[in-house]
């Protein structure tokens, strides 16, 4: 009886293995059918999309699209220029050349210096004739000029002149 039970067990295991294999095959075929159906639906929808795109593109001309894109680019450039012009601070006085401004400033300074030189009062030239020894008389004359309220511009120049005269 034990031997019969063991044979039955082996037979059932074999049947179970066959049934499991059959179920696996059926499951595989079911998945393959689902995938085929999904692929068919995807392909059909892609066909519809291609037809719809073809219909939409019938009225489009590539040259018109290029012209439109160029117009858009030009308008974006104009908008950028306007934006740049608005965002930049007002450049009042910035358009002058710095070298020209420096030359004009030097010219004005020179004019001011010349005007200042015209206002300088120089001492009057003595009307008496010079003696044979001019050194002492010249020193006396400069002393008199200082006493009378006249100023000499530079003491070094007076010393050099006195040294030259003696």
SSE blueprint and pairings:
Layout: H1 2-58, H2 62-87, H3 98-118, H4 134-147, H5 155-165
Explain the overall architecture:
Its main location: cytoplasm. One of its GO terms (cellular component) is ESCRT III complex. This is Charged multivesicular body protein 4c. The protein has 166 residues and is mostly helical. It has two domains: 1-59; 62-119, no CATH class. 78% of the residues lie in helices and 0% in strands. It has helices at 2-58, 62-87, 98-118, 134-147, 155-165. Helix 4 (134-147) packs antiparallel against helix 5 (155-165). The longest helix is centred in the first third of the chain and has 57 residues, at 2-58. The radius of gyration is 58 Å and the shape is elongated. The mean pLDDT is 82.
In brief, what are we looking at here?
The chain has 166 residues and is an all-alpha fold. Helix content is 78%, strand content 0%.
Structural class: mainly alpha
Distance between the termini: 164 Å
What's the number of extended β-strand segments? Answer: 0
The proportion of strand residues reads under 5%
Largest sheet: none
Described by the principal axes of the CA atoms, the overall outline is elongated
Q: So what's the oligomer here?
A: single chain
Q: How many distinct folded domains?
A: 2
Mean model confidence by pLDDT:
82
Helix content range = over 70%
Rg of Cα set? 58 Å
Helical segment tally? 5
| Poorly predicted runs of 5 or more residues | none
Listing every helix as H and every strand as E from the N terminus to the C terminus, the arrangement reads HHHHH
């Amino acid at each position: 009886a034990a031997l019969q039970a063991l044979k039955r067990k082996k037979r059932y295991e074999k049947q179970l293995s066959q049934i499991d294999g059959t179920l696996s095959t059926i499951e595989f075929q079911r998945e393959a059918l689902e995938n085929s159906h999904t692929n068919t639906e995807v392909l059909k929808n892609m066909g519809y999309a291609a037809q719809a795109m073809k219909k939409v593109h019938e009225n489009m001309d590539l040259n018109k699209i290029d012209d439109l894109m160029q117009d858009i680019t030009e308008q974006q450039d104009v908008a950028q220029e306007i934006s740049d012009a608005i965002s930049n601070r007002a450049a009042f006085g910035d358009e002058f050349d710095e070298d020209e401004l420096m030359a004009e400033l030097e010219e004005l300074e020179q004019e001011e210096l010349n005007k200042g030189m015209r206002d300088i009062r120089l001492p009057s030239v003595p009307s008496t004739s010079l003696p044979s020894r001019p050194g002492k008389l010249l020193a006396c004359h400069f002393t008199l000029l200082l006493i009378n309220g006249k100023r000499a511009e530079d003491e070094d120049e007076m010393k050099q002149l006195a040294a030259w005269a003696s």
